Structures are given as C-alpha cells and as structure tokens.
C-alpha cells in the first residue's frame, strides 16, 4: 500500500512482515511450480488489521488470476487485539504505586501477538509489564534469560492489586 493511501486508510499501527519465502526445489533448469509466502500481520486496531488482511488477500488473488496461478490462504496463531479495561489499568497503577513501584507509560505499543486479547473479550482486565531494565536482550532471542529477581516484584504487584481491589 502506498504511504499516502496508508496514512488515509489507517489511524494506528498496521504492518505485514514477510517471515519466509519458499519457491520450488533445487531442480536446476526447471521452473518452480509451487511457492509459499508466510507473513505476520499486526495491527493496533482489530478492524484496521482485518482491512489490511482483506487488501493483501484481494491483491494476491488478483495477481494469481492475472498470471493463471492457483492460490490458497492459511491462518495460524490468530490473536485478537489486546485492549485494556481503563478501570483495571487504574487499579494496577494504584497497586503499583502503593507497593512503591515506579509506573511508566509505554511510549509506543509492543508489536507482540498476545493470547491475552482472547481473555479480555470475555473478562475485563489489563496487561501490565514488569521491566527488567533497558540494557537487557530482547525477549524471544537466544540471548534472553528471564531475570528471576523480578518474580518478587510481580508477586508484590499482585498482592497490592488484591489489597487495592478489595
């Protein structure tokens, strides 16, 4: 999608990341008869992500039809948007403050897939993060090692959530 039309169409973060491309086999001199593109779609707003997906599917189908190719789509690990309940956010923030913890607002959303969004569709809640410093390897990398020392902070936060919420 061109940048100008993307800006008009979307109010928040939407992105498609190609994570794998596989075409044909090691058959030198023979045209590939099969290809596969895998991508991760992310969006801060459910409706905007669904619109982006619709556009991708529509464009891919049009290109396949133009070139006489077959096409199919498969979904895996589909997660809904994670939208915190404002009351639960306020409760968690107050509990953290009462527990002597620093509360920082995130400057921008994490671009994570999160099953927690499924829970928030049936029960109000808030996803909060307990930090472990700025100089630490990114999660989901081979260098990341969960710092056990923050478990105490997490337990204290939940303890104060129970106290403040009762």
Structure write-up:
The chain has 166 residues and is an alpha+beta fold. It has helices spanning 3-9, 46-66, 86-98, 116-120, 150-165, and strands spanning 14-23, 35-43. A two-stranded antiparallel ribbon has the order 1-2. The chain contains five helices and two strands.
Listing every helix as H and every strand as E from the N terminus to the C terminus, the arrangement reads: HEEHHHH
Please provide the count of β strands. Answer: 2
Provide the β-strand percentage band.
5-15%
Overall outline = elongated
Which helices and strands occur, and which strands form pairs?
Layout: H1 3-9, E1 14-23, E2 35-43, H2 46-66, H3 86-98, H4 116-120, H5 150-165
Characteristic terms for this protein:
37% helix; 166 residues; two-stranded antiparallel ribbon; 11% strand; alpha+beta; elongated
Describe what is shown at a glance:
Helices cover 37% and strands 11% of the residues. It has 166 residues and is an alpha+beta fold.
């Amino acid at each position: 999608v061109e940048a100008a039309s993307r800006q008009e169409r979307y109010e928040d973060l939407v992105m498609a990341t190609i994570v794998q491309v596989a075409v044909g086999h090691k058959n030198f001199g023979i045209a590939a008869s099969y290809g596969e593109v895998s991508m991760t779609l992310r969006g801060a707003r459910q409706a905007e992500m669904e619109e982006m997906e619709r556009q991708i599917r529509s464009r891919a189908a049009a290109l396949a039809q133009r070139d006489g190719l077959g096409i199919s789509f498969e979904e895996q690990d589909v997660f809904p948007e994670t939208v915190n309940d404002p009351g639960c956010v306020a409760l968690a923030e107050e509990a953290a403050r009462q527990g002597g913890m620093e509360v920082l607002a995130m400057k921008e959303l994490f671009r994570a897939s999160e099953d927690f969004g499924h829970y928030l569709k049936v029960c109000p809640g808030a996803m909060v993060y307990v930090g472990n410093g700025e100089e630490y390897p990114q999660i989901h990398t081979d260098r990341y090692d969960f710092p056990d020392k923050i478990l105490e902070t997490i337990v204290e936060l939940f303890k104060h959530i129970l106290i403040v919420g009762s």
